[in-house]
Amino acid sequence: MLELPEVATLHLLVTVAETGSLRQAAGLHGISQPAVSQRLRGLERRLGLRLLERSTVGSTLTPAGAAVVDWARPVLEASRELALGVAALRAEQAGQLRLAASMTVAEYLVPGWLARLHAAEPDLDVALRVGNSEQVAAMVRDRRADLGFVEGTSVPTGLRSRTVGADELLVVVAPGHRWSRRAAGVRPDELAAARLVLREEGSGTRDVFVRRLAAAGHRVHAGLELGSTTAIKAAVMAGEGPGVLSALAVGAELADGRLVAVTVRDLRFERRFRAVWLPGRDPSGPAARLLATATRSPGRRPRRAPTRRGA
Fold this sequence. Notes:
Blueprint: H1 7-19, H2 22-29, H3 33-47, E1 52-55, E2 58-61, H4 63-94, E3 96-102, H5 103-108, H6 110-120, E4 125-131, H7 133-141, E5 147-152, E6 160-173, H8 188-193, E7 196-199, H9 204-215, E8 222-226, H10 229-237, E9 243-246, H11 251-255, E10 260-262, E11 269-277, H12 285-296
Parallel strand pairs: 3-4, 3-5, 7-8
Antiparallel strand pairs: 1-2, 5-11, 6-9, 6-10, 6-11
Helix pairs in contact: 1-2, 1-3, 1-4, 2-3, 6-12
Family: Belongs to the LysR transcriptional regulatory family.
InterPro entries: LysR_HTH_N (IPR000847), LysR_subst-bd (IPR005119), WH-like_DNA-bd_sf (IPR036388), WH_DNA-bd_sf (IPR036390)
Pfam families: HTH_1, LysR_substrate
């Protein structure tokens, strides 16, 4: 029975047919021209056929060579499909993980979780997408993410969840703001009436803040909406108005005096961080291991920062 040729050698033959040149085929395959010539002569001996007419101006297929090239093309396509399928299986077994996380979770919690997970699974590959909590929930529902992490007061519709941490939102101002010297803090109605710097709608941070004030009978006025924690911090420090941010996000600024936390009388803005996934598709493999890592992680509830006391 005829011994089948190697797929790589068939690929060389097809490339020579397409370029008409042993030299160009050699360059495309990253090998020397003599190596190409040697392998194709070996293929001719194995098949017992003359496949190429060689000349000083190039190489052309013989009729037999043209037939072999036509038969080789579907073989090469099938080999590519085989390689892609095997790669996908290997990637799944090696631990490919599609992860989505809200901005606060992604910036302040996910790196630590991944560091602990990678210590046990150094070959784990993670693709992380970042958005607000509403966007993360949509990624999980659309199966663009295996596991999501959101912040807020409730579980997103149509998803299962597990609490993995807690957080508190702080009202912060620039050191020169009139509230920075309010030893007794501000009333909820004063806060609601202020020109606030807030995250965009769909953000878990904004959702918690708005819901807590609404429960106290007040509607929020957003004077400026920004799409990131960094932008809000910069705007507040520039004097745009009071901002509402995670305590995780403002520790350094509170410590060095660039921001001042303001107490809101009789009101605190606590929230939970949740892992979310599709019903009927409980996390497995790398997703389950990351969820376990996040659940076991030490609590990250920050201590409430003191307000600046003044006259």
